[in-house]
Amino acid sequence: MVANVADPGYTLQLSTALPSAGLPKATFRFPLGEVSLQEKEEEEDEQVKNLLSVSGILKGQFLKGVCTAHYNDEELKLRYRYKDDEMSFLPTLSLPSNALSFAFKRRFGLSDKLSGGSDALVQI
After folding, report:
1. Cα–Cα distance measured from residue 73 to residue 38, given in angstroms and rounded to the nearest whole number
2. Cα 103 from Cα 84, distance rounded (Å)
3. Do 51 and 82 share a structural domain?
4. Rounded to whole angstroms, how far apart are CA atoms 103 and 105?
5. Is there a contact between 100 and 79 (Cβ–Cβ < 8 Å)?
6. CA 9 from centre of chain
7. Going by C-beta distance under 8 Å and a sequence separation of 6 or more, which residues neighbour residue 60?
8. In this model, does residue 62 exceed pLDDT 70?
9. Which of 15, 97, 103, 123 is the most exposed place for a label (fewest CB within 10 A)?
10. Are residues 41 and 81 in the same domain?
11. What letter does residue 24 receive in the DSSP assignment?
12. Which residues pair with 39 in a beta bridge?
C-alpha cells in the first residue's frame, strides 16, 4: 500500500510478505532521502527475539559536491562526492568502526588520467 502525502515529494509505503509473519515494513520517502522501519527476528540463546530494524539515507548538496549519510542497524556511513570535468574525490567514513577510505581520479587529457585510493582504520 502506498500513500502520497499532499506534497508529491513525500510518500509513505507499507509492504509485507505473504503469508504475513509480522509487522509490515514501513518506508517514508522525502525529497532528501528515506527512512525504513522493519521487524527483524534474531536468535539469542535458543530464544527468538523480535527487534525493530531502522535504516535510512539522507542526501544533500554540500559545497560543490553531494554529501550522503546511510544508517543501517547501528552502522553509519558518511560519504562526500565531489566531481567536475577534471577531478573526482570520494572520502568515506564508517562509524562505529572508524574505517576511513578515499578514492580520487584526476584527468590531465583525453587519454591521461591518474587514480588511486586508500583504506585506513582511524583510532579515536
Report:
1. 11
2. 14
3. no
4. 7
5. no
6. 19
7. 32, 66, 67
8. yes
9. 123
10. no
11. P
12. 52
Residues 89 and 122 both lie in one domain? yes
- Position 68 confidence tier, pLDDT thresholds 50, 70, 90: very high
Provide the grid cell at 38: 522493519
Which DSSP symbol is given to 17?
A: -
Residues of the domain holding 104: 63-124
Long-range contacts of residues 20-25, Cβ cutoff 8 Å, at least 24 apart: 22/50
- HSE-CB at 63 with a 13 A cutoff on CA atoms is 9
Asked whether the beta carbons of 74 and 96 are under 8 A apart, the reply is yes
Which range, 13-22, 39-48, 54-63, is most confident?
Answer: 54-63
User: Total domain count for the chain?
Assistant: 2
Instruction: Retrieve residue 2's grid coordinates.
Output: 502506498
Q: Are 36 and 70 contained in the same domain?
A: no
**Is there a single domain that holds both residue 75 and residue 92?**
yes
Cell numbers for 90: 570520494
68 and 44 in a common domain: no
